[in-house]
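Entry 14. Structure prediction run on the chain below.
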Amino acid sequence: MVEVTADEPKWLLWARELQAIAQAGLTFSQNPFDLDRFRRLRAIAVEMLAEGADAPIERLTALFEQEVGYPTPKVDVRGAVIRDGRILLVREVSDGLWTLPGGWADVNQSAKECVEREVREESGFEARAVKLAAVWDRRRHAPAHSHAHSIYKLFFICELVGGTARPSIETSAVDFFAPHQLPPLSLGRTTAHQIERMFAHARDRGLMSEFD
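Output returned:
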C-alpha cells in the first residue's frame, strides 16, 4: 500500500511504484507477453512523471531504461563538518544554492569512503567520518522538492583533518556557516532541520542515530 505524505502528490507516489513493479517484472519474467506488459507499464509510469513534472518524456524514458535488477532506493550521502561552531556548506553550480557536501554513493566504495570522497571533491577539505547520525527517506524531509526516484539519505558527522577550501566542477563556493546564519539552501539536498540535527549530533556523539 502506498503511504501518502502531506505534501507529495499522489501521482508521483503511484508513478514510482508502477515503475518499480515494471522493473521487477522485467528482471524476473521470462514470458515474452509478460515482458511486453511490463514495458508498457514502465512507459505509463514515465508518461505520468512527464505529465506531472512537465519534463521531457525522452529524458525520463532514458533515465528508467538504465535501471536494471530488482528496484531499490538510491543512496545519497552527506557529510557534516563543523569547525568553531560553524558547519561546512558548498554552493551547487546546478541551482546556485547551498548544501552539505555529498552526492550519490558509488559502487565498490563503503558509505564512509563515499562521504569522505564527496567532502574532498566538493569542498577541498579532507574529513574523516566518525558517526552515522541519520538515515532519512528523502520524500519525508523534502516533500516540496520531489524526485523521480525513491532515495535514502545518509548523514555522517565528519572530523576535519586537513585541506583548504577549493570549489569543484559541481560547486562554485565553499564556506562555514553558523546555525543562525545559514545561506539559501538547496532543499532537495539539505534542509535547515537536517543541519540543526547535525549540530546536535556533533555536540553529543552519544545521541542515537536517527531514522524514519
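Residues 10-65 form one domain.
Filed with the rest of this week's runs.
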